């Protein structure tokens, strides 16, 4: 990656969450979906959220 390379476009939002190692015992890989007919966290309009959680144990990381 180059020093002047942008990771987000203008107005983009990066959400980064940090947790303690103890959460690894409670989390697991998963897939799911949620229908929000009246909007919700991600948008004020109706939307369908498709989600998947990945676990990379060698790095102690979860990606959502």
Walk me through the topology.
Blueprint: E1 30-36, E2 47-56, E3 61-63
Antiparallel strand pairs: 1-2, 2-3
Quick structural gist:
The protein has 64 residues and is mainly beta. The protein contains no helices and 3 strands. The chain starts with 29 loop residues before the first strand and ends with a strand.
Structure description:
It is built from no helices and three strands. The radius of gyration is 16 Å and the shape is extended. A three-stranded antiparallel sheet has the order 1-2-3, with no helix packed on it. Strand 2 and strand 3 form a beta hairpin. The protein has strands at 30-36, 47-56, 61-63.
List keywords for this structure.
64 residues, single chain, mainly beta
Please describe the biggest sheet, giving its number of strands, its sense, and whether it closes into a barrel.
3 strands, antiparallel
The averaged pLDDT comes out at 83
Structural class, judged by helices and strands? Answer: mainly beta
Q: Please indicate the percent range of residues in DSSP E strands (runs of 2 or more).
A: 25-35%
* DSSP summary, beta strand count: 3
Helix content: under 10%
- In whole angstroms, the N-to-C terminal distance is 23 Å
């Amino acid at each position: 990656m180059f020093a002047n390379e942008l990771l987000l476009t203008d107005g983009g939002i990066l959400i980064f969450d940090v947790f303690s190692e103890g959460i690894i015992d409670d989390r697991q890989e998963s897939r799911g979906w949620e229908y929000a007919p009246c909007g919700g966290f991600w948008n004020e309009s109706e939307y369908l959220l498709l989600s998947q959680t990945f676990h990379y144990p060698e790095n102690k990381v979860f990606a959502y």
